[in-house]
Amino acid sequence: MPSRYMKPISTFLLLILGTNLLLADRIHFNDGRPPKEGKVMLETPGLLELKWEKRPGIFQTDRYLKTNIERVEIDTKEDIQFRNMGKLVPTPDRLTPEDYQRRIAKCTAFLDIFPNGAHAPKAQIILESLQQEYKKAAAGGLKLDNKWIQPEARERDAYAIDAGMEYSDMLAAKDSSNLMMTMRHFEKISSDFAASENYAKAREVAIDTLKTYGPILQRQVGQVQFKRQDRERARATLPANVRAQNKAAQDRADANYLKRVGRETNELKTKWLSLNEYHSDPMRKVLNSVKNTLTALEKEAPAEKEPFAGSLHRDAWDAVRSGDIETGEEILKQLKSLKIPVRYLERLEEALPPPEEPEPEPEPEPE
Q1: Three-state DSSP state, 12
Q2: Which of 292, 309, 308 is nearest to 183 (CA)?
Q3: What is the pTM of this model?
Q4: In contact, 130 and 88? CB cutoff 8 Å
Q5: pLDDT digits (tens, 9 = 90+) for 157-211
Q6: Do residues 310 and 160 lie in contact, with contact meaning Cβ atoms separated by under 8 Å?
Q7: Could you tell me which residues come within 8 angstroms of residue 282 by beta carbon, excluding any fewer than 6 positions away?
Q8: DSSP characters over 135-181
């Protein structure tokens, strides 16, 4: 594991040791109240004083009679750091080798600080599990649905697997009512996976999403001017010495939002922009995209039944690996005609032998 991943995480852990001590202790009550987490500041034979975070950055100190307390848990620095590492295992699906490296670095840093601590054995087990999965990911494997796809199968089915993951992400965004991300995933499916078996299903989801998205945007566009007026009225109620600061902060927020929209338009090349309740122009652009895209999708004729690119990509790899170069080259031509992204063709082309150069014609003998 490269050492460059270790030191920043170790430093980070050391820095946050002091910042989280206020959330180190827990009081368990005997009267049915839920446990209270904070920092014990004072303890006498009859009462206990706890400082706790009422809301981010705002702390409150309360006193509790010991007759109402069942027990008090006092965390050590090691307890705090072990908890702050987060849930490293079991790992979620689709982690990249870099994702594993970050988790491994966090676990290694904890063991560097507390090599003989009470949580060290468990941390060591976690570390070994992460290292084993990292090797699989680094070799080209993929964890999907909590099962590992071996590198050869991952390469063979790359197009179908990636199309399936994008469609799954689209459904997850739709289920969480994130209409913008739903359409961004469809945008990706349209550009990269239109030749997959997932496209027809994604198209139906997109049509349903757009029918919901349009009326929502229409209402939001009509509310922008009132939102801006409310913001101005709220600012006018502030003390004079605060009003200018508030205006400057809002101007910065507006400028940052417009920069973000610019990046999404020019770098991400997406028409499904992030929205802000105080800005109507991006809303109108997205609303226009909703109308145009919905019209186009509803007019789109169903594709004729033909082999999907996923199965063709799989067959091409099977042909190449079995030595049937002629079939592999023929399928590669079909894949190119379907205009699938070059990244799925390059590995196949590398696996195929280069075309034989024709023998040079002999020079005619002099008469």
Answers
A1: helix
A2: 292
A3: 0.79
A4: yes
A5: 999 999 999 999 999 999 999 999 999 999 999 999 999 999 999 999 999 999 9
A6: yes
A7: 261, 273, 274, 275, 276
A8: HHHHTT-EEETTEEEPHHHHHHTHHHHHHHHHHHHHHHHHHTT-HHH
